[in-house]
Amino acid sequence: MSKRSDQAKRSVPITHLLGSFGFRVRDSDRKQWIGCHLHGSGQDSKPSAAVYPDTNSWYCWGCGKARNTIQTVMECKGIGFGEAIRWLEQTYQLAVIDDGFEHQAPRAVTLDFNPTETSEQIAHRVDSLLASASELIPAERRAKLWFGLDVIQGRLHDGGLTEETAKGEMRKIYVRFFHDLSNTAGDVE
Ligand SMILES: [Zn+2]
Predict the structure, then answer these.
(1) Which fold has domain 2-91?
(2) Tens digit of pLDDT per residue, the chain (189 long)?
(3) Spatial distance between the Cα atoms of 107 and 21, rounded to a whole number of angstroms
(4) Which of 60, 62, 100, 156 is the Cys-Cys partner for 49 at CB 3.0 to 4.6 Å?
(5) Where in the chain is the domain with CATH 3.90.580.10?
(6) 177 in Cβ contact with 130 (< 8 Å)
(7) Dist. CA 61 → ligand 1 center (Å)
(8) 30 CA distance to ligand 1 centroid (A)?
(9) Which of 162, 123, 160 is nearest to 145 (CA)?
(10) In angstroms, rounded to a whole number, what is the distance separating the alpha carbons of residues 173 and 156?
């Protein structure tokens, strides 16, 4: 993934990309302030964000985050990491780099589970994976997986699920996480 993501981060000028998503950006290679429509009501009356052409990124104080080209596409289009890279490659006709990423079909994801692991341990593992994947999986997908985990834990505590069933359900969330990571499946339901 890294060669393709590096190319996608470097080859598309951030000012051009932001302009294409309706941000009012000047074509300049100097730092500039812009309004950001990714936070609040989407109507940013004051310029909350700074664009840094030298690092090909921008930072919004309203959102409290920095974004490169890939993150910008992910959020403006509501798509995943791999899809954003493909979109940049196609839209800006970047060089085709075969790093094998396309061949990682979701079904090829095989995960070994330790049968002695308790539901609590699985929940903890999924929870920390989700927490560490903020750059890789869109927030709404992570929130959905987290919510699923919560529901399972709640039902386990209420006695609505046995430990074994809860473990099976949590492992499904774990598998979905990797599906989202390889990002070829979109919504795996
Ligand atoms: Zn913002």
Answers:
(1) DNA Primase; Chain A (3.90.580)
(2) 578 999 999 999 999 999 999 999 998 889 999 999 999 887 877 889 999 999 999 999 999 999 999 999 999 999 999 999 999 999 999 888 876 655 444 444 456 677 788 888 888 888 877 877 777 778 888 888 888 898 899 989 889 889 999 998 888 888 887 777 765 334 333
(3) 34
(4) 60
(5) 2-91
(6) yes
(7) 6
(8) 20
(9) 123
(10) 15
* Ligand 1 centroid to residue 31 C-alpha, Å: 16
Q: How far does the centroid of ligand 1 lie from the alpha carbon of residue 35, in Å? A: 8
Locus of tokens 């992570």: 142
Name beta bridge partners: 60.
49, 65
CA distances to 12, 37, 45, 77, 130 from 21, rounded to whole Å, are 13, 10, 17, 9, 28
Q: Tell me the CA distances in angstroms from 1 to 7, 94, 139, one per residue in order.
A: 10, 15, 20
User: Ligand 1 being an ion, which residues bring their Cβ within 5 A of it?
Assistant: 36, 38-39, 60, 62-63
* 8 residue type, one letter: A
Q: Which helix (H) or strand (E) holds 123?
A: helix 119-132
Output the DSSP codes for 47-79: --EEEETTTTEEEETTTTEEE-HHHHHHHHHT-
One-letter amino acid for residue 104 of the chain = Q
Ligand 1 centroid – CA 7 distance (Å): 25
Backbone φ and ψ of 35, nearest 5°: -80, 150
The values of phi and psi at residue 101, to 5°, are: -60, -40
